[in-house]
Amino acid sequence: MSNAAVPASKSEPKSKWLILSAVMLGSIMGPLDGSIVNTVLPSITDYFGTGISTVQWVPTVYLLTISCLILLYGRLGDMIGCRKVYLYGLAAFTVTSALCGSSQSIWMLVAFRAVQGLAAGMMMAVGYAIITAAFPPNERGKALGIYAVSIAVGLGLGPTLGGLIAQSLSWRYVFFVNVPIGISAVLWGYRIIPQGIAKAGQRLDLPGVVAAFVFLLSLLLYADRGGDWGWLAPVSVSLLAVALVSGVLFVWIERGSGQPMLNMALFANRVFAFANLSALLNFMAVFSVVFLTPFYLTLVLRYDILKVGLVMSASPVATLFVAPLSGMLSDRIGARALAFCGMSICALGLFLLSGLRATADSFDVVWRLAIVGVGAGLFQSPNNSAVMGSVPAVHLGVASGILAAMRNVGMALGIAIAGAVLYACAPVARSMQPGSFSSTDTMEFLCGLRWAYIAGAAIAGTAAITSLVAVQKAVNRPVSDMVRGE
Fold first, then answer.
1. For the chain, percent helix, then strand, then coil, each to nearest 5?
2. What DSSP character marks residue 476?
3. Is the pLDDT of residue 453 over 90?
4. 336-346 pLDDT per residue, tens
5. Is pLDDT above 80 for 477?
6. Range in 90-94, 262-266, 454-458 the model is least confident about
7. Cα–Cα nearest to 29, from 256, 212, 189, 199
8. Highest mean pLDDT among 279-288, 319-328, 429-438
């Protein structure tokens, strides 16, 4: 049995909190690296003397490689133990961070970012499983709520830290900052996270791995680059066709496999299916805000990079404070009501953002972003607890990987949809040159921004509805008692 399947009762009361601290220390680096790099892209562009279309591959390839093998990592966690997958990923992430910071060309940086994404996916895929196995059902929501703090801190620190580094140091330090954190996290995790035991007779579903990889790669590449290439351009349509075919093939392979990478029977569980769908929609809505708001702050309000980072931190800081409280409350009253209220608040925040004008000040933006952050914090911990509490112990790794995949795919789709709406309503936004907007351009941009935020609000509202559909009875069952789908 892998360490993911160890019953929570075998963890000492003190050790479970140490396990949580070890996972949080490593997990902060993934979202930190994802948010900090976007802030210094102009510096990287200037340093290597390259174009925006080329440097855009630095964040794009990271997102692609994180997501494409995340289901495989979840399955490996169930096979060989989540501890091994997590620590190997953490060590590789630390090494590749140093390599990224030492890159001598733009394409060397892109290559190292691809490998760094593979390592980050290993950490993200099994974090939920390690925590779920360490805590009893009546504390699972609280633990996952506290775990959400590490993600919120990473997202919140990224823009501000990136702005500080861009103004006072070289862009290379956005990668070097991971090295001391990573070394500490590897040493602490090696000491604290329980040892897993490899299962006998397990084999990897290689056809399923290939089909899942092709599906996620083509879907995310279409979502990320389709706006630049044209959504109906031949290359974009080809990617979408490949995604559809490989997705259908993946389901067919998994249904016929004796040891599938992804047990499709898990989706017969109403909680698991709809809570994962809600998670996907949540990240689509939240990342429409992450994508759109910096453009508004830069192009319309003319803020510098540091001020943009400070204003953008309002949403993750709000999530940081709300998520642990929401997690503790979900242990008492269940997940459904909290998840519904959280996404309803998110929808309200996005709708209020659609009312921003060219005369707004920073406070006008901050309190709206804070509402979105409160909604996300209220939703995420109970919903994550619902997902992880609805699966058999032997599938904790896969469930954790699916939940992580929902997060990354939701990020990509949210940015793609927000960008598509913005550019359709305001083609001038594609120029993205601060200081070059006329008053007419600004009005056009604000109109596009308004409808893009409204689209995000509609997505959040849909997530609120899907949260109600999920039945909450299974949320607090002991993991060791759950046998359906084994």
1. 80, 0, 20
2. T
3. yes
4. 889 999 999 99
5. no
6. 262-266
7. 189
8. 279-288
Query: H helices of 259-361, where?
Result: 270-295, 305-312, 314-333, 336-353
User: 155, 323 in Cβ contact below 8 A?
Assistant: no
Residues 442 and 98: their CA atoms lie apart, in Å, by 41
Tokens of residue 297, six digits: 């702050």
Q: For residue 462, with 0-12 CB atoms within 10 Å meaning exposed, 13-18 middle and 19 or more buried, which class applies?
A: middle
The answer to whether the CB of 133 falls within 8 A of the CB of 3 is: yes
Residue among 106, 91, 105 nearest 179 (CA): 91
Q: What stretch of H or E contains 233?
A: none
DSSP string for 7-47: -GGGS-HHHHHHHHHHHHHHHTHHHHHHHHHHHTHHHHHHH
CB atoms within 10 A of CB 392: 21
Question: Alpha carbon 440 to chain centroid distance?
Answer: 36
Tell whether pTM > 0.85.
no
Handedness of CA 89, 95, 98, 102 (dihedral sign): negative
Phi first, then psi, for residue 476 (nearest 5°) are -105, 20
Query: Could you tell me how many residues make up the chain?
Result: 486
For the CA atoms of 15, 21, 25, 28, the dihedral, rounded to the nearest 10 degrees, stands at 140
Q: Distance (Å, rounded) from C-alpha 131 to C-alpha 17?
A: 9
**Rounded Cα gap, residues 120 and 225, in angstroms:** 22
d(CA 393, CA 400): 11
CA angle 290, 295, 296 (to 5 degrees): 100
For 163, the token pair is 């702005």
228, 352, 473 from 378: Cα distances, Å: 35, 18, 19
CA distance linking residue 45 with residue 52, whole number of Å: 7
Radius of gyration of the chain (CA): 21
Is 70's pLDDT higher than 50? Answer: yes
CB 227 within 8 A of CB 181: no
Q: Which residues does 72 contact at the CB level (< 8 Å), separation at least 6?
A: 204, 209, 212, 213, 261, 401
Q: What is the pLDDT of residue 437?
A: 63
Q: Is the CB of residue 62 less than 8 Å from the CB of residue 37? A: yes
